[in-house]
TrEMBL record:
Listed InterPro entries: DUF4136
Record organism: bacterium 19CA01SA08
Keyword match RNA-binding: no
Short name of one Pfam family: DUF4136
Residue ranges occupied by any DUF4136 domain in the UniProt entry: 22-173
Record-given protein name: DUF4136 domain-containing protein
Gene3D superfamilies listed in its UniProt record: 3.30.160.670
Signal sequence bounds: 1-18
Keywords: Signal
Length: 175
């Protein structure tokens, strides 16, 4: 019974520990007036597949939030940047100390644990999305998040879409 309860609570605990996207914005700006957007051209990149995936995920996510993509007369422009780095290997030393009783006797225990990195090297991709007000050409909102991956292909494409959706779930900011 306790094992089943633990299994049911595990996803909740893992979700609670998940990193939330970061955002910053101009609190004095009225985001309610934004309706139409245009994505800025993709700058040259040494990873054009990632750049195109991110751009498409941004457009798709904004459209799903009822924003309209236009080529002229946009209320805001969208740009992005991304960086891919090696993911730090998990390693370290942990020391635990505990005490307890069993019957009429007591006891104390000490344990150590050394982390050994296993598996293939992973990469960490950080995505930053900027919302720029068109008339003044100034930054009004910025969001960022990251994900880890070991291989490209559909897994990385899906992680890219999910990360962009998490970032843009905070846009427009709620007062």
């Amino acid at each position: 019974m306790k094992f089943r309860t633990l299994l049911l609570l595990l996803p909740l605990l893992l979700t609670a520990c998940a990193q939330q996207p970061k955002q910053d914005y101009d609190p004095g700006y009225s985001f309610a007036k934004l309706q139409k957007f245009t994505p800025l051209p993709i700058s040259s990149s040494d990873d054009p597949l990632s750049a195109e995936r991110i751009n498409q995920a941004i457009v798709d996510t904004l459209k799903s939030k009822q924003f309209i993509e236009v080529t002229e007369s946009a209320d805001f422009k969208v740009s992005f940047a991304f960086r891919t780095t090696d993911k730090p290997k998990d390693k370290g030393l942990s020391i635990g100390l505990g005490s307890g009783t069993w019957g009429s006797g007591g006891g104390i225990g000490v344990g150590t644990s050394v982390g050994v990195p296993l598996g293939a090297d992973a990469k960490l991709q950080t995505i930053q999305i900027d919302i720029i007000e068109t008339t003044s050409n100034r930054l009004i909102w910025r969001g960022s998040d990251q994900f880890s991956f070991s291989d490209g292909g559909e897994g990385k494409a899906q992680a890219t879409r999910e990360t962009v959706m998490r970032i843009l779930s905070q846009f427009p900011p709620q007062p």
